[in-house]
Each structure stands twice: as C-alpha cells, then as structure tokens.
Amino acid sequence: MKRILFILSLLPLSAAAQSNGNAYGIGNSASVNGSVNMPSLMRIDVTDHHKQVVLNRIEDYENGKVAYDIASLNVKSSRPWIVNIMTEGQYASPSSATSSRTMPVSMFSFKESASDQFVTVSTSARPLIRSTNSSLENSYTLDMLVKPPFGHQSGVYTTNIIFTLTQQ
Amino acid sequence: MGYNIKNTPNIGKAPNTTMYRIIIFLLLTSPLQILAQGNGNNKISVQANRPIQFSYNNIEELQQQKVLTNALELKLKVKEYNWNVFASLVSENNSFYNTFNNKLALRLQNYDSYNANISRTDVVLSQAQALLFTQPAVQHSQHFNFYYDVVLYPFTNFVPSGQFNFSIVFTMTRP
After folding, report:
1. Where are the beta strands (DSSP E) in A40-168?
2. B141 pLDDT tier (thresholds 50, 70, 90)
3. Quick check: helix, strand or coil at residue A83?
4. Label partner for A33 (CA 20 to 30 A): which of B119, B139, B148, B168?
5. Do B165 and B125 sit in the same domain of this protein?
6. What is the pLDDT of residues B50-73, one digit of tens each?
7. CA of B109 to nearest chain A CA: how many angstroms apart?
8. How many domains are contained in chain A?
9. Do B78 and B115 touch, CB atoms closer than 8 A?
C-alpha cells in the first residue's frame, strides 16, 4: 500500500515535468499571450479652396448665391461620427469702416456636395455630415450658400467657420 | 434485532477497498494525462522574445501595418513521424474575433530546419487552425527553431475600442 502511494505521488511530478519545462508550456501544444489596446481615434482635415463669392445682382440677394466646392473635408475615425459646423461670433467681420458691423453670420449656409440640405451657421454647433458607412476614411466637398439680409452696407465680409468632429 | 455482530470488524476494511479502486483508477488514467502533454521525442514550445502588445496613438497608425519583428521563437523537438504545426487565435472576448480574425498574421523570419516544408508567405490567423509548416521525421531526435514576426494588418473600417487580450496557440499534429 505504501509503495502504491509512493508511485502515485511521483506521477503528478512526471506530468508536470512534461508541461512546465518552459514558461509557455511544452507538449503537443503551446501558446503565447498578446493584447491590442485600441483607443477611439479620429481626425478631421479641412482644405479651404479660397473662393470669394460676389453678389452683384438683386437676384443674388433675393435667392442667395451658391459657391460650389468651396472647401473639402477629410474625415478619419475609428467610430461612427458627426461633423458639426459653427462660427466664433454672431457677426461677420467687415473689411472696411464703412461696412456694416452687424452682418449676421446666418447669411452663410453649408452643405456636403451630395446633399440637398444647407445648414445655416450660428454660434452653436450644428450637425453638417454624419457617417453613413463604416469606412475608416471619407472625403467630402462642401458648397456654400450666401444670402445676406437686406439693409446692410455693401462691402467684403469674412468669418471663420469651425468644423468639429465628434463620436455619434 | 437483525444485526450480525460478527460482521462488524469488516466495516473497517471498506475504505481500503474504495481506496484501492481510486488508486487503480488513477494509475490507469495518469499515463493518459502524460500522453496528452506530448511524448518525450516530439514536443513544441514557444517563447515570446518581446511583449506581444499592439497599441495605437493616432488614426494614421490604424491605416498602417504594425510588425513585432522576431517576436516569437517556436521550438520543435522531433524524431518519429511527420508533424504539421498549426497556429490559431483564442480569446475569451467573442468580439475579438469579429475585429481581429484575419487581421493578425505570423511572418516567418528565420528557421534552422533542413527539411521542413514551409511557406514564406504570411500565415493569417483566425479561430481556425492555420498550417504554419510540415516538419518531416528525422533520423535522430533533433531540435529546430522557427522565428516569426507578429503582424497586425491595417484597418479600413470602424474598430471597437478597448483592450483585447488573446492567445496564439500552436499545435503539432500528425498528418
């Protein structure tokens, strides 16, 4: 009986010797552990095509005037996303002292070229484009509608447009 | 009263009978456990020469291939028989497979077997076993080493965020 117990006590050691000769195991199979740390990643690049919109007819004021392909956007994101649009200030900047200082930025609207719906800009962020596919990278061109209100001085007006990329 | 007092001394022997049965059972099954680990002449082991860890700092990195050069050293001891060596991915996180099946691969860097039937092309990993190489039988017991890069291919679509842990499992089986 004691002999049998002695043999039994050796057997687990023998089995362990087969499997623990290496930290990763020796035998008919072996394995290594690994990991992937995947954060949420996104990036937006805007290219200004430096187009100037000139309104020189009364119809331009009544209907507005569209400048096509005024800028392009390149969006890279690892997650579904939204591009929002906004301006820094409530009024567009006049280029001269005689121009109106209260020309509202709402005279500017933007849309992605393939879309029909212009989004009027304001000081609060508004959705402009949402991801419609799962591609990591997408590119767009933007059109701009300029429709200034009546009652302001003529002149050259500029404003900074801010595009922000957020996760859906 | 129905009791046989003469039989009471036998009660003490019952545990011995049970113990003998357990001992015989263990004696019969222990060799099977050892065989499951592989026999002495044919073994496989793997060592990571660097951490198998991938991380990303920006989205451009996701669009590029990541390579852990010479990350794995696969050691094979063979004598009898031909052996197929396979690799596969295992993870406790089921979503891991949706994202990383066919994205991770092993790329052969070097090896010292003189007769292995081995391909230089990347072996793409998934849950299913992928054949790395076939090692034919040799005259005397020999050790062979195989060095692999671990490759993570570029992504073109959305990727769930988080920490994904996995194992690369290597198995040797007879054809």
Report:
1. 42-48, 65-77, 81-87, 93-94, 108-112, 119-120, 126-130, 137-146, 157-158, 161-167
2. very high
3. strand
4. B119
5. yes
6. 999 999 999 999 999 999 999 999
7. 18
8. 2
9. no
B84 and B18 belong to one structural domain: no
Structural domain span for residue A28:
1-34
Q: How many CB pairs under 8 A join A and B?
A: 160
Residue-level pLDDT at A5: 42
**SS3 of chain B: helix, strand, coil, percent, to 5:** 25, 40, 35
Chain A contacts of B164, Cβ < 8 Å?
35-38
CATH number at B138 reads: 2.60.120
Beta carbons of A38 and B161 less than 8 Å apart: yes
Inter-chain contact B34–A40, Cβ cutoff 8 Å?
no
Domain co-membership, B80 together with B25: no
Report the 3 state secondary structure along B99-114: HHCCCEEEEEEEECCC
Chain B residues lying within 8 Å of A38, measured CB to CB: 56, 99, 159-164
Number of domains in chain B: 2
CATH number at residue A158: 2.60.40
Chain A, nearest residue to B30 by Cα: A11
Biggest alpha carbon distance in chain B?
90
Contact check, Cβ <8 Å, B45/A80: no
Contact A78 B59 (CB under 8 A): yes
Answer yes or no: do B81 and B141 share one domain.
yes
Q: Which of the two residues, A70 and A99, has the higher pLDDT score?
A: A70
Whether residue B108 is found in the same domain as residue B136: yes
Write the residue in B33, B46, B162 that is nearest to A38 by C-beta. Answer: B162
Please, which residues have CB within 8 angstroms of residue A73's CB and are 6 or more apart in sequence?
Answer: A44, A45, A46, A47, A83, A112, A129, A139, A140, A141, A142, A163
CA torsion through residues B32, B85, A24, B43, sign? positive
* A26 shares its domain with A47: no
